[in-house]
DNA sequence: ATGCGGTCCTGCAAGTTTGCATTACTGCAT
DNA sequence: ATGCAGTAATGCAAACTTGCAGGACCGCAT
């Protein structure tokens, strides 16, 4: 649960404010569309100042999708890394991480999750722009990608390791985006298949390329 | 030459204004840094209103690097496509196109080109953010990628063709970015090698992946 | 309970970017 | 030369985003 994280008053307040912002953002987008859901309006509804909004989220879109700023996914990532990906296909791991970042807020209520699904369906641009800034802003993600690749025997540990990590990460992001787009177009079921679909897309692409 | 494109007065004026904006942007960035080079300052120096600035370029950074808005690279792309890429490796073609978009302004004076090199070296973030928005905003690029891939026998022509095009394009963009980063770090020579380097990076990555 | 150090919230101002409406200019036909 | 239609330039306002500075609040030691 997101609302009773760790017992300090400060932490509780932060969690509550975060939840209020996410709820406000999602409700306003569903009710009035993404253009009418301005930062001012969201902040108003969440009971904070617009300046404070940006202390909680990097952008309007991040708030809508519930993507915590850089430090927030720390947990998700460490978790996945700790979950021993030894011998696993780095592509599978990375696709999982990328999809996981998009799901930072998935500890939230099922109501929120359902609403977000609807939003992504109706306004795919939002997810698109967020995915675009993923590979750009999230240096951390790149570090993790490099770390994962360095744990794979197939990848040499030379000076180009970082460059390769960037390339593989970009591939994974693009695949996740493609999988989401497909899911958004067809009135399909829910997400767990999305990661598998992304991996499958990468594999067929690679098979064609080589 | 960019300043004597097609003889209509209108076209000449447009070309001249474009050139003035690019020159102003580059000079200001070199003199005062990217933060001090505001849109207002650039527009002032170019003798236009700040609003007009955005009729010529999509963003401050695009102006600095001389990247024309979506329609601008039409020519570059058509040219490359016309130059018969039959039987050529789609990766090579795409890397060329991506690098080409970054060089839209390369018809400009050699002075401008040298200054831009210096800017990219000193402020790599600019190139980074531009590359990030490439795969996001440039729908056209994606279309071309799909077209190129559809011309290659190895790629099936099924429903996933667009998804695969997105993945390959993302790979190429990431590779070009990596190649540029490398070039920016080492006090290396000039650009023609960058495309080859990007292709090489992709190939070693693929070899490791499969 | 009080006070201290650190964190958080807020207002303000600057900068980027876009939409809309108004005005000016170019290209072309008369 | 004149006028018309389309295109370009501009001003204006709104929205997003970030840095800075002042004040409020929380956690903790005394």
TrEMBL record, chains A, B:
The keyword DNA-binding applies. Residues 38-57 bind DNA. Pfam families: TetR_N. Keywords: DNA-binding, Transcription, Transcription regulation. Residues 15-75 form the HTH tetR-type domain. GO terms for molecular function: DNA-binding transcription factor activity; transcription cis-regulatory region binding. Gene3D superfamilies: Tetracycline Repressor, domain 2 (1.10.357.10). This is Putative Transcriptional regulator, TetR family protein. It comes from Nostocoides japonicum T1-X7.
């Amino acid at each position: 649960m997101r609302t009773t994280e760790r017992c300090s008053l400060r932490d509780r307040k932060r969690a509550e404010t975060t939840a209020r912002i996410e709820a406000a953002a999602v409700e306003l987008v569903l009710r009035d569309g993404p253009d009418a859901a301005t930062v001012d309006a969201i902040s108003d509804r969440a009971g904070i100042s617009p300046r404070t909004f940006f202390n909680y989220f990097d952008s309007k879109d991040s708030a809508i999708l519930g993507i915590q700023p850089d430090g927030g996914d720390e947990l998700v990532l460490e978790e996945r890394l700790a979950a021993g990906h030894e011998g696993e296909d780095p592509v599978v791991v990375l696709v999982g991480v990328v999809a996981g970042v998009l799901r930072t807020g998935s500890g939230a209520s099922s109501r929120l999750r359902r609403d977000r699904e609807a939003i992504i369906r109706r306004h795919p641009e939002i997810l698109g722009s967020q995915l675009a800034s993923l590979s750009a802003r999230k240096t951390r993600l790149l570090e993790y990608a490099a770390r994962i690749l360095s744990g794979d025997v197939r990848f040499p540990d030379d000076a180009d390791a970082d460059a390769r990590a960037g390339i593989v990460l970009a591939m994974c992001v693009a695949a996740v985006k493609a999988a989401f787009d497909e899911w958004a177009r067809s009135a399909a079921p829910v997400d767990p298949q999305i990661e598998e679909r992304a991996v499958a897309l990468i594999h067929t692409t690679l098979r064609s390329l080589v």
